[in-house]
Amino acid sequence: MADHSARLLAAYPSLRIIGIDRDPEARAQAAKVLAPFGDRVRIVSATFGEMREVVTDARAWLAGAPIVGVLMDLGVSSHQLDAGERGFSFRADAPLDMRMDPTSGLTAAEYIASADVHEFTRLLRENGEDRFAGAIARSIIKSLPQTTAELSAAVERVVPMAVRRKGHVATRAFQALRIAVNDEMGQLARGLEGALEVLAADGILTVISYHSGEDRTVKSTFQRWATGGCQCSQALGCVCGAVALATVDRASSQLATANEISLNPRARSARLRIARKVRA
Predict the structure, then answer these.
(1) What is the architecture of the domain spanning 2-77+185-277?
(2) Fewest CB within 10 A of the end CB: N or C in the chain?
(3) CA angle 116, 151, 86 (to 5 degrees)
């Protein structure tokens, strides 16, 4: 939140920004970074899915100013990954937490203890596991891991060394768990619709995603807005009277440049898409 916001505030002196984050550590860091901009910044404890309510509550602070842009930077932050005690990464042994808001909801360990093996298998498949999704799901649920090391071991037990792909064998299991624990796909779907609702006409929605599931959701939502949900035959043309809600900047996502990746290797997986709300 902080880096993007600081650059925007410096570039546009009349701009005000509402920063939304559910992680108290992220909000505290943003408050420090954005302190020089004074009352041009409002930092709120919320999720993307609560965007409508956040904007409604901020109407007096906005003093009638329209919402001209929304930036959604999805997924886990570098700080969350690097803070080993948060349990997001296999690089440090820590309690299996993974909550973006560590004050509420089930931890990853608690989620596993209540998970259905079929649902967990589906979740793993949606995050790129294929041949071993079922075996991994059964191993994790059977072992009931309480730490990141125990989770990694549960995955390693059922994936043969000979077929392990490049990278850590448990990467996709960690990602799938994190997404489920934080309801990231649900928050994304609600956040996209909320963003379109709060934006003024010609307002811009920019979304940065970091895995294929997120990007597919953003792409399909933008396509639905651009067509108004029309499913008529292209050969016959639209006869259903669908009205476009947004225009899409480009059909494909925009990737990080080589220079951006050299400055931040985690940008390699970033996918950026842009939509503009049309006038009614």
Answers:
(1) 3-Layer(aba) Sandwich (3.40)
(2) C
(3) 105
